[in-house]
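User: Please predict the structure of the protein below. I'd like the answer in structure-token form so I can feed it into my own downstream comparison script.

Assistant: Understood. Taking the following sequence of 301 residues as input:
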Amino acid sequence: MIKRLIPWLKWLAPLAVAFFIGRVIYLQWQKIRDFDWRFDPLFLILSFVATSTWFLVRAWVWRTIVAHFGRAIPYRESVRIFVLSELSRYVPGTVWQYFSRIYLAGQWGVPAAAALSSALMELLLMALAAVPLVLWHIDEVLPIVGHVQQTLLLTFPVAAVLLLQPAVLNRLARFLLPRLKMEYVPIEIRFRTIAGLWAVCLLVWIAFGAGFVLFARSLAPIGFAAGVQLVSQYAASWLIGVLTFFAPGGIGVREGVLGLLLGKMMPLGTAFVVAVASRLWLIGMELLWAAVAQVYFRARR
């Protein structure tokens, strides 16, 4: 029964969220027009620089993981593979970004199992790097667990250390890959290296969150004192979008969650406009970096 509902959810959930967002914007259009919008191109440029780390450094993290499977890909080519495969996540099905990663990496001799395992491991590191930012303001994201915020902040490092142990990751791969009809390929990597990659992912998240804060500041007079709160809200919306597997690229769901969280700082209609505009800004950057990578970053095999 659930399997039959998933294909419908892939279309109905984003459409339902889009209808809700559109209705709020329509009903509050006058308030949106009267809002004190302040477009500042300087902050937009700074946002572009900060957000670009999301593509350039994540590609390096994925390339580093692939290298521990015994395969080497030039950095320029890893950026091209990463940004092109990331665009595929907007195709309904949730698997196309991994299929495209497998196909493009396979042209460099990377086995399908290694390409998939490295992609999932990079996504896991990014998700775990987002968790501390979410926990920092968990009382706003999930008020029901806000009273145990300090406990969660203290227990998260222990849980992360246990989950990122090489033996645990290999065991997960040994369980998952045969079910995807792929040969299990062990990864030879030390926990110290994994911890270092997680720290890099945390820095990427800080830069990515700062990019969103700068983008929001380029449109609205938002004080930088609320920067940490905005980063936490952005990380929470991204994490929920990733967990909502039936929405391609988390589209719709992420904007809905982000708009509701931003609605605590500004009128709800204005918050949804900022949330939708941030998605369009990110898609525009993805297309730009994909074009740059395709033209200038292609390396010879």
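That's the full token string. Residues 268-296 form the longest helix (29 residues).
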